[in-house]
């Protein structure tokens, strides 16, 4: 196994240093990487479809010869080229068209044989395949049967320039032949036997070059189980290690928290109250809290975090609250400062010229004593002099609650007695970033929050090292947001909806996917369109523009104007995805909605409907792909974030949805948690059982698993090693 894991790809036959660099674009650096580089689909090439037998609206594979080729300019779009081939076999002809890929014409030669895969359509009475996938069969290959490419179930991979399907198949076959005999199996035999799983060699052979579909299915099951099991074993080890570390047993003053809750201008939902009880129960225990708080957009996670902060502060500990953007950090600072000041007989804002609104001092009555709680705001845009002053106050402990962005992770930020870490929108931070903040204290309690929820059963399994809390209801009085969809040609109707809201004194957002106009993507940009809207559709209203390239001072100024209703419309990019909470905004128009992901669309929609008035989210798109169409349908049908997340997982697939940035630990290459939940649960049970029996993986049958975990999850060696 060690040889398989560590051998660089350049040592495989036919690969040198130059070609090895190309493989890095596919994430392939070692022999193991290439053997675990799974096909994205298979083609049944035991018998190709004859052209005369092709059926419309079906995806089929044909083998045909190039009869003619050409290129033409699009009638509708400038600088948009169309490459067209006519191919045929001895039963008929079909046209093949590729849009805006003019470089393809250099690959095609008259008389060459192609294997083509795509959806069969009919235009002007003639059969046609749009943007088909293709392979070029060289002359010698066309005249003989090939063991890897013809007469079998043939794997199709994601490739890049300089690597063809045929070359990759030969390379993978060579790797399997040379290295599989040297590879051990990281899944212990007893686990394979109990779960009726193939061994590693049979699995890898049949995932790449299946003898039949039954063996391919068994290989898929085994390799999916292996992925799930490795991840669950890592989580189980991590949770076991956390239980061994003592944390802070907070002494919580219940009357203080109850008085604060009673002073709020709104009533907490039952779901919020339940979550607060779960957090308080954790915080009084001598073990470090590790809790994930899931809640839909606008469900009230911030007030829960504020109450948790108070529980830490009133015992003399510091709390830190990290947000992914400066806009969101400032919003949390303003909101929490306002909420805490309600309890205070006197509130003092430090607002001299050098420190504008970066700290707030509030007198809190705790027991019979008056205590000053200072709230700080730390972001990268602060002047160095102000940062240094805050660093000193954080170190001395005079700042009790610190709110900020990535600036909190700077080495100069040192706490006196950090007791609680809160990380908002956890999926916006990398794994390393999330782990840095708790290290600034001695095993502080950690509360991780996300507005990108996933179903509870899935969350329990995927975040097995965290305890889970869910806010599954919105505050009372919120009306459902009406979501509408218009084609580009009908966007005037969308603008009319916004105008109706503006005329009655409400405000609106207009969201664009990019700042500058993109000719490559053929989409409008926020900068250009803000000018056009200002002088056209919305000339009678005040309009502002905000995007990530503006200086922070400029962003703050625009947001303030919008909050003060000096502006009616805010044109923006996705900088608004998390952050702004303005109750008076009742309309959002999302231009080129097909360019956004489903969870992103739902997050954007969550920026409106924060008051008690009816709100409208208007999507403008032509749904150019099946995936984009599915996203639009989901947005129109569902408003619940958990259901949206389910649909998003179906559309994007688990590899993207649970990438290392979001899940924090793994990269799913083959397993699908949504469709293989039964397998995931079994893998989790086996992993927990194995770790409980052998927490340091020292048993002989677990040595290869130990090597695999250290290889797959850098940093876990300290969890696994004995002592």
CATH class of the domain at 254-284 and 300-450: Alpha Beta
Strand order in space, largest sheet: 11-12-13-14-10-15-16-9-17
Number of strands: 23
CATH topology of the domain at 254-284 and 300-450: Rossmann fold
Range of helix content = 25-40%
The termini sit apart by 25 Å
**How much strand content do the residues show?**
15-25%
Please give the largest β-sheet.
Answer: 9 strands, mixed
Taken from the alpha-carbon principal axes, the silhouette is globular
The chain-level mean pLDDT equals 83
Structural class: alpha/beta
* Low-confidence regions: 345-357, 365-370, 660-665
Radius of gyration over all CA atoms, rounded: 29 Å
CATH superfamily of the domain at 254-284 and 300-450: P-loop containing nucleotide triphosphate hydrolases
Summarize the structure in short.
By secondary structure, this protein is of the alpha/beta class.
List the keywords.
723 residues, alpha/beta, OB fold (Dihydrolipoamide Acetyltransferase, E2P), Rossmann fold, 9-stranded mixed β-sheet, 6-stranded parallel β-sheet, 26 helices, 37% helix, globular
